[in-house]
Amino acid sequence: MSYKLFIPGPITVSEKTLRAMAQPMIGHRSTDFVALYNSIQPDLQALIFTKDPVYISTSSAWGSMEGRKQFAKNSQPALTTPLRLSIMKPRAVA
Prior knowledge:
The chain is mainly alpha-helical. The chain is built from three helices and two strands. The protein has one domain. A two-stranded antiparallel sheet has the order 1-2.
């Protein structure tokens, strides 16, 4: 059977993708998410050529800006939360 996804499509969706999309979502406050987030940090750091932590935001750019503003207002970062928001600075091109 052929399935189509209509954003921004239509595009044909493979059986592998369809099975992956049928899996239950991981809660962003679960231990599974923390393990997943920690496991991808080295690859994200390599991808953007940094040794600093890479912060992920699942919101729009506006949400990232608001999150960064709130993050900066705190005198100390909340180290107990698995997800912190930040706006990444573009790296200099040599």
